Amino acid sequence: MTERRPDLDFLRVVAILLLHLYHSARFFNVDDPWHLKAPQLLPALTQPMEILHILRMPLLMLIAGAVAAYAVARRGVGGFAWDRTKRLLLPLVVGMLVIVPPQIYLERLDRGLYAGSYWSFWPSVFQFVPYPKGSLSWHHLWFVAYLFTYCLLALPLLAWLGRPSGKAFLSRAQAFLVRGWNLLWLVVPIFLIRILLRNHRETNDLIHDPKGFLFYGYLFLAGHLLARCPEVWERLVALRWSFLGLAAFLLAILLPDGEFPFPWEHLAVWLFSWSGLLAILGFARRNVRREGPLLRHAQSLAYPFYILHQTVILAVGYPLMKPAMNPWVRLGWVTLLSFLCTWALCEGLARVPWLRPLFGLGPRKRPRAPATPLPQPAEA
Question: What are the residue ranges spanned by the domains of the chain?
Answer without folding.
Answer: 1-53+292-351
